[in-house]
Amino acid sequence: MIAQIQGKIILIEPTRVVIDCNGIGYELLISLQTYSNIKEKESIRLYTHLYLQTNPDSNLSFFGFFDTMERTIFRLLIGVSGIGPSTAIIMLSSMTPLQIRNFIVAEDVKKIQTIKGIGLKTAQRVILELKDKLIKLYDDSHNISPSFDNSIKEETLSALEVLGYKRKQVEKSVDAILQEKPDTSIESLIKQVLNKI
């Protein structure tokens, strides 16, 4: 499984990007959210998801995401019956991952329905299947968009979870440190959190 790709942009369009990684050009499908975050950059790192479509023909699609939250929301969305990767990318192009999370948790059917291709039944199904999962993944502190790089926070929380700590147990400490020092490295952040526990 390829979790991320880092390299130089050799082609970028609103729906796709080609990244040169050690002489190999990887084409990744992206959302407009990711596009707006990377369009001015020369070198980037994208978190990835490889999607295998088995019916009617076997096709591989490679998706790239600016941060782990966007990738997580994408993976949750494509797990809902009736939502394929194309629809999930449209959703992530229409709204930020944080907005999608908040509208689902708030059970705001009308807001979700404003996305192209999402009808009433699909919007209701998304809420029914994902609300509890999103509440567990992202608590209410995500209602306010942080000023720091969310990917650093997510990587740090993932690392701490691997070490055996619960997300809710350490998330406030991570937020507090990042609010004071937004440019803190992941390694330094983990050490500071461990010293506080």
- Count of individual helical segments: 9
Please tell me the total number of domains.
3
What is the CATH H-level superfamily of the largest domain? Answer: 5' to 3' exonuclease, C-terminal subdomain
Radius of gyration over C-alpha positions, nearest whole angstrom: 17 Å
Order of helices and strands: EEEHEEHHHHHHHH
* CATH third-level topology of the largest domain: DNA polymerase, domain 1
Based on Cα principal axes, name the global outline: globular
Secondary-structure content class: alpha+beta
- Euclidean distance between termini CA atoms: 33 Å
The CATH architecture term of the largest domain is Orthogonal Bundle
Largest sheet: 5 strands, antiparallel
Total DSSP E strands: 5
Helical fraction: 40-55%
**What share of the residues does DSSP label as strand, in percent?**
15-25%
Q: Give the overall average pLDDT.
A: 86
Give the strand order, joined by hyphens, for the main sheet: 3-2-1-4-5
CATH class identity of the largest domain: Mainly Alpha
How would you sum up this structure, described in words?
By secondary structure, the chain is an alpha+beta fold. The chain is 50% helix and 20% strand. The protein has a 5-stranded antiparallel beta sheet with strand order 3-2-1-4-5, with helices on both faces. Strand 1 (4-13) and strand 2 (16-21) form a beta hairpin. Helix 2 (68-78) crosses helix 3 (85-94) and helix 8 packs across helix 9. The longest helix is centred in the middle third of the chain and has 18 residues, at 120-137.
